[in-house]
């Protein structure tokens, strides 16, 4: 048999239903109807006005053109200049582990400090030629270098339209977006030719 446990007085008072009462407190101050239009209704009205005037279509076309231009001609890599004084230097691509590489049991596969050069495994199959297609001198020089090396050169743009060059040259043209490669290799001037020299990369910044 279940026994009823008496509730504390405070709990009984809390659980007891309260009578629902409402009172008219009257009007405290003057009231006025809302004069501002609803935000969504106002936006809809403005869009309809722009559509009727043709402005909406012009804005859509301008946005489409900007999208096409950004794909056909990405933003040029900042911080590069045309080579004024030719120079040659080397880049060592050796990677050094900053922490241990472990398996799922926590066993160390490669300890921190392990060094590995990717060129020991995969050689650079083609030279990399970085240049700015907005400069006709660099474009002409790039074409000469590609022909001189029997096509064993990958053209990599840092500015200009790679699509235009692909149509003219009938070869694949690459783009160093955000300057990832030039920044990593330490390239400051273009045109610059990158080739493998043993287990290092040689960078030649050439005068156009």
Mean pLDDT, to the nearest integer, reads: 82
Uncertain ranges: 1-16
Radius of gyration: 35 Å
State the helix count: 6
Question: Percent of residues in helical segments?
Answer: 25-40%
Distance between the termini: 102 Å
Q: What fraction of residues sit in β-strands?
A: 15-25%
Strand order of the largest sheet: 2-12-11-7-8-9
Going by CATH, the architecture of the domain at 81-93 and 119-205 would be 3-Layer(aba) Sandwich
Structural class: alpha/beta
Let me know the number of strands. Answer: 12
CATH class call of the domain at 81-93 and 119-205: Alpha Beta
Choose one word for the global shape.
flat
User: Helix and strand string, N-terminal first?
Assistant: HHHEEEEEEEHEHEHEEE
What would the CATH topology of the domain at 81-93 and 119-205 be?
Answer: Glutaredoxin
Q: Quick one: biggest sheet?
A: 6 strands, mixed
